[in-house]
Amino acid sequence: MPDLEVLLGEHLSPVRAPQELWERVHTPRDPRSARVLPRLALAASAVILVMGSAIGLHAQMKRPSAMQPAQAPRLQAWLKSSTGLDVHGACRLCHEDDAGVY
User: Fold this and answer.
1) Which of 42, 44, 67, 102 could, after both became Cys, cross-link 92 (CB 3.0–4.6 A)?
2) pLDDT tens-digit series, residues 23-34
3) Model confidence, pTM
4) Domains of the chain: which residue ranges?
């Protein structure tokens, strides 16, 4: 097997670069202008994500709970018997104003 340097020396030779390439080398673009669009897109995406999350959270908080307050003691008893966890105190943190159920 021939040596790589010998093989490359036989088949490769210097070539003249196109004039357009030299023009691009001698007059480079402003690197800051190339970064403006990605940063703007990232900022817009972040704003859309935050706004969507805020709207979704607001809608979730305003939606009535699927569980009726009368069902809470039954759920607490089931959790206590199934897992041994007493969720009475945890439920009171969020639902202390639900008609005195907790």
Assistant:
1) 102
2) 888 887 776 666
3) 0.35
4) 14-63, 67-102
